[in-house]
Amino acid sequence: MCSPSATLTVWAGSWLAGCSAPDDVLEALHAWAPQHTIAAGDPVTGGRTDLPWSSRGNLPGTGMMALLKVIRESMAQPGAQLRLVLPVPGDVRGLPTGTAFAADAIEAEEGLLIGAPGTEGTGLIPQWTDEDTLQWSVYSTPIPPAPGQDMSLGEAEYAMREAVRDAADALLQLHTTSVGSAESDPRELIEAELADYSRHDYPDSIPLRARKILDTADHVAAILTVAQREPASAPTSASAIGAQESLLRPLWDAIRAARLVAIHAAARSTP
Predict the structure, then answer these.
(1) Which of 26, 29, 22 is nearest to 7 (CA)?
(2) Which stretch of DSSP H or E encloses residue 164?
(3) Are both 88 and 189 inside the same structural domain?
(4) Cβ contact 259:6 at 8 Å
(5) 222-240 pLDDT per residue, tens
(6) Which pTM value belongs to this model?
(7) Helix-strand-coil percent breakdown of the chain, rounded to 5?
(8) Helix (H), strand (E) at residue 50
(9) Is residue 138 domain-shared with residue 236, that is, in the same domain?
């Protein structure tokens, strides 16, 4: 799983559909951090919900059952949806512009919108308060219309198959293995990245094709992470930096788009 918000979207969808228990949701979130709290992300939400408020999540929050209560109440209105957002610089589609939620989601590069499009709803953003605690900030925010029609699962699956090949090509271009250095073996580094992703389980209710897309997206992300992180691939000039960014950005964009399609398909799945 790529982020705490993605985990919460998938497991909350399964819980609301009656396919998972509340404890299953909490257990899945504990794979990210042993402690989770919830607090208001803005003073308006703090006054409306009586949650403790901190602009940066630095105050102790309430327990995790309060998070499930917020989700259930926000999903009670007709037409309500769970919508994952994964904004990055240059692409903030799906965010309610000019809101505290949007500003903090851009900084966190993730978040969850809950509610019916065109109405006032709820936003959730995870923020690390220390290495063992993840605090979920709750925002009162308008729910914008969907940014556009998602690609189909079939299209996302095909895009990820192509991305595996393109990511491998990028790795060859950007990474040079040092002779005799086992620590620099790209295959071992990729396996380590994949092991980190595999700590996070999916609910049994997730469509098989969506699961396959998410697994492939994790594989591509692991390859790209190794390709751009290792010293051998570090660009040494402005032109080299631009070339590396031009090579990798379309692949990261493809991963993000495929993950959104698969996560939303999983969140909508019903028995």
Answers:
(1) 29
(2) helix 153-174
(3) no
(4) yes
(5) 888 887 775 444 555 556 5
(6) 0.85
(7) 50, 15, 30
(8) none
(9) no
